[in-house]
Amino acid sequence: MKDLSSLHTFGIAAHCERIIDIQHEHDLVQLQGVSPLLILGGGSNCVFVDDFEGAVVRNQLRGVERTESASEVMLSVASGENWHEFVTDCMEQGIFGFENLALIPGTVGAAPIQNIGAYGRELASFVHTVHAYDLSTQKHVVFNNHECQFGYRESVFKHQPCRWFITRVVFSVPKMLDLETSYGELAALTDPTPHSIYTEVCRVRRAKLPDPDVLGNAGSFFKNPVITQAEWLALAAQHSAALHYRVDAHHVKVPAAWLIDQCGFKGQARGGVRSHTTQPLVLTNIGGASGCDVLAFAREIRDTVLARFNIGLENEVRLIGRKGLVTL
Predict the structure, then answer these.
(1) Among 124, 166, 160, 118, which Cα is nearest to 141's?
(2) What's the CA dihedral at 237, 283, 49, 19 to 10 degrees?
(3) Which listed site, 124, 128, 204, 231, has its alpha carbon 20 to 30 Å from 73?
(4) Among candidates 98, 80, 84, 89, which has minimal Cα distance to 172?
């Protein structure tokens, strides 16, 4: 059995039967007939809650290609590239747009699966195409932006995680792009620039979120729930301090961290798992956490929020059990 504790940032002791490294696209033929299997990028958005009875596939594809026209820069990025390093390289090369998404952990290949987003930007606005290998047919497929079916933390790839191995993401970045400073601390910036946005996003994330190299965690454990306008008005009538962000004319997003904090979970621990002291949305491994600890505490948080606010929380992290994904 292979040790997985160092391959996911939550750091729970878990094992798998086999580890397969993909360093070149032609290595993908090794995956034919392998089942069950789990494709792993940086391990920053998953928690192994049990030993995995199959093969873990590590994405180690590398490389970035750049072309440009008068109006845009096209970046073709191998899926194993580190996301934050890619964002930082773009900043250094004068390619702006990704600065709001700085310091999000994980790989480029994992980014479209979750349609990562932060501070008013979503990855979907920059994706031109996603190149993937269909493990069920052993064929390469190219998805355009529409075919990716992006939504809030959603994509076509998310619900068939063992079918698609994303090999490359092609981004289209306009050279004339308005800065996004409407969200959170960015609204207080004076004369914002891409570099000041990047710096502020990194500062805020480092201040609020624990470093997984120091304290095991998988980032935001729950999604921010989206509710209807009518549900929001009912919530606001009872809780005047409630926070929200408008999604469209009929829906708003309520910060899951606020809901969890209102239920008194910030800083609380169950077994080896704690709701972080400065960001209750993040569950941390304070030492010796087990998969049972994670599931039990997450379910307690979910059930308490539902009972108090009638709002259901869904896990954002992938929870990996013996055969694959498990649910709360």
Answers:
(1) 166
(2) 130
(3) 204
(4) 98
pLDDT at residue 41 greater than cutoff 90 = no
Percentage of residues in the chain having pLDDT higher than 90: 89
- Per-residue pLDDT at 161 exceeds 80: no
What H or E segment, with its residue span, contains residue 161? none
Distance CA 106, CA 110 (A): 7
pLDDT, mean of residues 68-97: 97
Task: Calculate the CA dihedral of residues 40, 41, 42, 46 and round it to 10 degrees.
Answer: -50
* Gyration radius (Cα) of the chain, Å: 20
List Cβ neighbours of 146 (8 Å cut-off, separation of 6 or more). none
How would DSSP label each residue in 185-246? GGGG-SS--HHHHHHHHHHHHHHHS--TTTSEEEEE-BPPPEEEHHHHHHHHHH-TT---EE
Upper half-sphere CA count for residue 194 (Cβ side, 13 Å): 17
Q: Going by C-beta distance under 8 Å and a sequence separation of 6 or more, which residues neighbour residue 273?
A: 283, 284, 285, 286, 289, 293, 294, 297
Query: Is the pLDDT confidence value at 46 over 90?
Result: yes
In 3-state terms, what secondary structure has residue 293? helix
Residue carrying the six token digits 């409407």: 182
pTM for this prediction: 0.87
Catalytic residues: 153, 220, 316
How far is it, in rounded angstroms, from Cα 65 to Cα 108? 14
pLDDT exceeds 80 at position 200 = yes
Q: Tell the residue number behind the tokens 């259901």, with chain if given.
A: 312
